[in-house]
Amino acid sequence: MCELLTSNQGSVNSIPVPDLYSSHEEADSRITLHCMYAPQKPTTEGVIVRSPDSDVFLLLLSSSDAISKPLIFDTSSGNNRRQLNITDLAATMSKRLRDAIIGLHAFTGCDSTSCFAGKGKLKTLKMLEGDQDHQDTFSRIGTLETISGQDMQVIETFVCQLYGKPSHTSVDKVRYDKVRQCFKGKKGILSNSEGVDLSQMPPCQDVLMLHTQRANFQIKIWRVLSSNLPDLPKPENNQWRLSSSGGLEIKWFS
């Protein structure tokens, strides 16, 4: 149970806040829920969140429309400490782009999803900003139970572009071309695999599909931050599986 702390003439009072009792497991999600609740207090002039976590920043940015008072993100420390006005930043961006950014963040790697080795967030953000189809697709992720075939094709094309093949639409074709390039001019094209750095290749189509479904599950949680007790699907129905010890393991292949 969360409590609201107030002070009066040197004494501190605590008041239970039932609306903030939450089933969200992540602290990042609960922080955002608290920020949505805080402006309901008439004396609240603004909300300041102190955190070093980029996940928190992006969740607040995507949820800024639901926070009615000025929202400040206070991050880093020492000479690098700075305050970012999320309310002002959000006003410079379309809602579709803000919705797409949080989708892109989970897809390109967060606490619960894997990343694309060697592919930084800045590059993918620039790709997103420059393509309306990408924005439409990533803003839809997490709003539906499953990924449509059309959106999956856009995502696959996005990954091809990420790996330097903007004219390709198949990650399997990109993988094939990269292997051929490694052995160009050599005899016995597959006789020696030491020239292939698998970490520099995109995932195959099967693995990409499973990864996208796991990202969809994570984003689905982030899309319902305004609900303290959301009805969510089970992770084992979203390309996770239960281990023999009762924990969760990633399902890498179908």
Automatic annotation (TrEMBL):
It comes from Plakobranchus ocellatus. This is Uncharacterized protein.
